[in-house]
Amino acid sequence: MTLASNSQIFNMDLGPLNPVLAELILGAVLFGLTFLLLAKGILPKIRRTLDAREDAIEGGTDRADGLRAEATQIREQYEAELAEARHDAARIRSKAVEEGSVAIAAARAEGSAERDAILAAGAQKIASERAAAERELTADVDAWAHALAARIVGEPVGADRV
């Protein structure tokens, strides 16, 4: 078959583009075999692989969303526990401040009471020692006054005059 005979079959003259009937049939048969090979053998495997990949991606996304939600829940729980711990710490601090103030007030009161007791005991001791000193000095002063008066007068005065 030649190009001239092909132009008689198709009733058109395309020049060098006129198809050769044998090549056209061979091309169609090979295209059909290639199409069947791809459609029945290779494309289903590719489709299964793509479906598995898509399932893995969507499943991974779903798992990631689930993990993200779980992480958010855990974070909120942690923040709630942290807020509660801060509240407890503040309550403990205020209680410690109150107890410290009470302890300081009690220590001051006790110290004031001890100071007052020591001052009272000291004042009483001073008063008793002063009274004892006055008694001693009074007795001695009387004797000294008689002795001095006796020296000045030249004769015994008071009880010494017998």
Question: Can you walk me through this structure?
Answer:
It contains 2 helices and no strands. The mean pLDDT is 85. It has 162 residues and is mostly helical. It starts with a helix and ends in a 9-residue tail after the last helix. The longest helix is centred in the middle third of the chain and has 133 residues, at 21-153. Helix content is 87%, strand content 0%.
Q: What order do the helices and strands come in, and which of them pair?
A:
Elements: H1 3-10, H2 21-153
What's the overall average pLDDT, rounded?
85
Proportion of helical residues: over 70%
Largest sheet: none
What structural class do the secondary elements suggest?
mainly alpha
Strand proportion, as a percent range, falls in under 5%
Spatial shape = rod-shaped
Strand segment tally: 0
Total helical segments: 2
Order of helices and strands: HH
Radius of gyration: 64 Å
Report the span from N to C terminus.
193 Å
Low-confidence stretches: none
